[in-house]
Design goal:
heterotrimer; A alpha/beta; B alpha/beta; C alpha/beta; A: six-stranded mixed beta sheet; globular; C: alpha/beta; Rossmann fold; seven-stranded mixed beta sheet; five-stranded mixed beta sheet; 12 helices; 14 strands; 40% helix; binds thiamine diphosphate
């Protein structure tokens, strides 16, 4: 893997920014270069907040990524906005609990994941972002699952009860992502 | 409400509004009269310039509390003191809205904002500024009233005050300022209902409603309304 | 120390504290509000001063006053606020007072927008306020560099007794990258601050001022300032070359975050057989003129391309440095629109195809 870019998008309160940051923290732990860049200002209108994370083995150039290798979309406006932008060969991870649409692009891999459902079943709708994060890492292997788990323990460890839920859905997301991608997206 | 008044008094076509920076910068999307955009805090200076050159026109500024009571304090005090014959609608929501919830001069003691994360410390940042009271200490005749818009009765009162202010301006009587207490649920971190209650319970005791100054009280004469 | 993930605005704020600048004055403005929001919590921990002023005019004069004590002072703002500070900065330069000012530039003129821009270059490097003075200006392109340059800025401010500006943009302010802070902060020794107003107990009273009604004394003051800037031109030139080599046909000149986008362009074009180098000025004043001229006039360089998030400001300094030895071309987007790598690539391909017409082609406007 030389450089990998992923955009996280949804509406405010879905934990988009945090999901991206957890990935970035994990990248740092693995000694990689990372950039996390949020949307701000007028870009925030129209129901999408987003951030992009770049993980690389070498110095990162442009922090602004127009065509990422993956997009993890949490709501419909984000699906509409970022679905078409994913680079050919890339991944579109769709929160199918809130997005009923599917892309007709054949040049990318689409994974549909009922993330809200999984989160609620595990005990908290708040961990939807962690389901998605697990699935993304499962599908792409951008960072190691063990390192990711460590990051969660460090960053989300304060609330013990919630941490357990987080780790549980992370694993579920991870397994699903891994199974669905059938290994073909592995870097 | 301002727009309604302008229509009722048949002033709209010769009115020019001035919005400085703040949530009010978007005011021009809600009015169908001419509008100017002022640098942060400077609307009263623009209004002075405009009104002096075109005294036949109706001029009003629409300013937030950060704008008017912080960076623009000098401009509003001197405009009021010169008795500039324009109208200021001063929206006091006890916070900087547009920039994401920093402490304003009107932020209440103990109120949490992004630049007073453990609550406003009045030892270090002073007491909240009462603009209506402050301006009414000036000797120059003016019409100054504080109103609120969190209940239907208050809205009626606010409307009456705004109408009076524009009537004074139309008659060329005096400077007028209507301070409007309003909510900012997003930056207060409250629901709209909670925000309404907070305004009533916290803001109105410190910022009492009412008329602080009118040209009649200064001159013992009847005003135009 | 370990690498930690930090937002640019917060990392710069922390760097200021590490460099001993525990006196901060501010006024809210997007997109740098996180500096204040970070420092309002951090200053009490280090016993420092945090004050939100009534305006940027007041801020500039508060740092002027605070700087007279000899302590390190810091402020941050964004374009419209920086404009309001110019009077105070001019007084500080005239009175030879140090301070560090962070400008997280947003699109202008006027109220403009809040997205990244580089349209305050002229204001930053040519003086900004009235009178014969300059700011020393440093432009970081990564957050680590923002941290390093912020610490350096406090040293330079004291060394030259002059305001120093860190020129960033919304990208630097808002993005997060790993940063490392040195375990302990050290810097070359500085002369004692015998100019500070500390009370006339064991010395004669002193006056800190910029008023010199006698023209000879005022001229002398300006000559003193000028000499400092000449010294800075010898000692404080900073720049970076990226893939600058003899085979380069085009040399890009770009600074700050824009330079990183150009770096991507260069990497992408390499496998296509285009040899392009990047010259990135880090100190914008003093400007790395001599070094730039050397790189721009290498044998194989056919043309120079300046890329900015503005309608063309630094390009004038590049033209001055290259002095007609090579054609200097310009590409820029502004208003908060950041040029994409694709747009810049197209420019380069056109240049190489055209075998570089002489002169500066019409600026691209959209
Ligand atoms: C010179 C200058 N400084 C700072 C700003 C940033 N700014 C934009 S709006 C605003 C104030 C917003 O607060 P307020 O006036 O209370 O109005 P509200 O948004 O609450 O309606 C500030 C500080 C600016 N635009 N110009």
């Amino acid at each position: 893997m030389a450089q990998y870019e992923v955009t996280w998008a949804g509406f405010g309160g879905q934990g988009i920014m945090v999901a991206g940051q957890l990935l970035a923290y994990t990248g740092i732990e693995e000694g990689k270069q990372v950039v996390w860049i949020p949307s701000y200002g007028p870009e925030m209108r129209g129901g999408t907040a987003y951030c992009t994370v770049v993980v690389s083995d070498s110095r990162i150039g442009s922090p602004i990524i127009n065509n990422p290798r993956a997009a993890c979309v949490f709501n419909r406006p984000s699906f509409d906005k970022f679905g078409p932008k994913v680079r050919p060969g890339g991944l579109l991870l769709v929160n199918s609990s809130l997005i009923t649409a599917t892309t007709d692009r054949t040049d990318i891999t689409q994974i549909l994941l009922p993330a809200n459902r999984i989160a609620i079943d595990a005990g908290s709708p708040k961990v939807t972002n962690i389901v998605m994060l697990g699935a993304f890492v499962g599908a792409t292997g951008i960072v190691s699952y063990n390192h990711l788990k460590e990051t969660l323990k460090v960053k989300l460890g304060k609330k013990k009860g919630l941490l357990e839920v987080n780790l549980k859905v992370l694993e579920e997301g991870y397994n699903r992502g891994k199974a669905e991608s059938k290994g073909k997206l592995r870097a | 409400m301002v727009a309604e008044t302008l229509d009722e008094l048949n002033l709209r076509e010769r009115t020019c509004g001035i919005a400085p920076v703040g949530c009010s910068v978007l005011a021009y999307n809600y009015f169908n009269c001419d509008f100017l955009e002022a640098p942060h805090g400077r609307a009263p200076a623009l209004a002075t310039g405009f009104k002096r050159v075109r005294p036949d026109m109706i001029v009003f500024t629409y300013q937030g509390d950060g704008d008017l009571a912080s960076i623009g304090m000098a401009e509003i005090v001197h405009s009021a003191n010169r008795g500039e014959k324009f109208t200021t609608i001063f929206v006091n929501n006890a916070i900087y809205g547009m920039t994401g919830g920093q402490m304003a001069p009107t932020t209440l003691e103990g109120q949490i904002t992004t630049t007073s994360p453990i609550g406003r410390n009045v030892q270090q940042t002073g007491q909240p500024v009462r603009v209506a009271e402050l301006l009414s200490t000036l000797n120059t005749p003016a019409y100054i009233e504080r109103v609120a818009v969190h209940t239907p009765q208050n809205i009626i009162g606010a409307k009456r005050a705004i109408r009076k202010a524009f009537a004074y301006q139309a008659a060329g009587t005096c400077f007028s300022l209507i301070e409007v207490l309003s909510t900012c649920p997003t930056n207060w971190g409250l629901t709209p209902d909670e925000a309404t209650a907070w305004l009533q319970e916290k803001m109105t005791p410190y910022f009492p409603l009412g008329c602080f100054k009118s040209p009649e009280s200064d001159e013992d004469s009847d005003g135009p309304v | 120390m370990a690498r930690i993930l930090m937002k640019g605005n917060e990392a710069i704020a922390e760097a200021a504290i590490r460099a001993g600048a525990t006196n901060y004055f501010c006024y809210p403005i997007t997109p740098q509000s996180e500096v204040a929001e970070y420092l309002v919590k951090r200053m009490p921990e280090v016993g420092g001063v945090f004050l939100q002023a009534e305006s940027e005019i007041a801020v500039a004069n508060m740092i002027l006053g605070a700087s007279c004590t000899g302590k390190r002072v810091f402020t941050s703002s964004s374009s419209p606020g920086i404009s309001l500070m110019q009077e105070g900065l001019s007084y500080m330069a005239g009175s030879q007072l140090p301070c560090v000012v962070l400008n997280i530039v947003r699109g202008g003129p006027g109220l403009g927008g809040i997205l990244p821009a580089q349209s305050d270059y002229f204001q930053a490097v040519k003086g900004g306020g009235h009178g014969d003075y300059r700011l020393l200006v440093l432009a970081p392109s990564t957050i680590q560099e923002a941290v390093d340059l912020t610490m350096l800025a406090f040293h330079l401010a004291d060394k030259y007794r002059n305001p120093v500006m860190i020129l960033g943009d919304g990208m630097i302010g808002q993005m997060m990258e790993p940063v490392e802070f040195p375990d302990s902060y050290s810097e070359p020794e500085l002369p004692p601050k015998d100019w500070a107003a500390t009370g006339a107990s064991d010395r004669d009273p002193l006056i800190i001022r910029s008023l010199f009604l006698d023209p000879t004394t005022l001229e002398e003051n300006s000559i003193i300032l000028h000499k400092k800037y000449e010294q800075a031109k010898k000692e404080e030139i900073r720049f970076e070359n990226y893939k600058v080599k003899p085979s380069n046909k085009v040399l890009i000149v770009s600074y700050g975050t824009m330079a990183r986008i150009c770096q991507t362009v260069i990497d992408d074009l390499e496998p296509e057989g285009y040899s392009v180098g990047l010259f990135r000025p880090i100190s914008l004043f003093p400007y790395p003129e001599v070094a730039l001229r050397k790189e721009a006039t290498r044998k194989n360089i056919e043309s120079v391309l300046v890329v900015e998030m503005s309608m063309g400001q630094m390009v004038e300094d590049v033209e001055k440095a290259v002095a007609g030895a090579r054609p200097v071309n310009f590409f820029g987007r502004t208003g908060g629109i950041v040029p994409t790598p694709e747009e810049v690539k197209d420019q380069i391909k056109k240049l190489i195809k055209k075998k570089s017409r002489r002169g500066r082609p019409a600026k691209k406007r959209k």
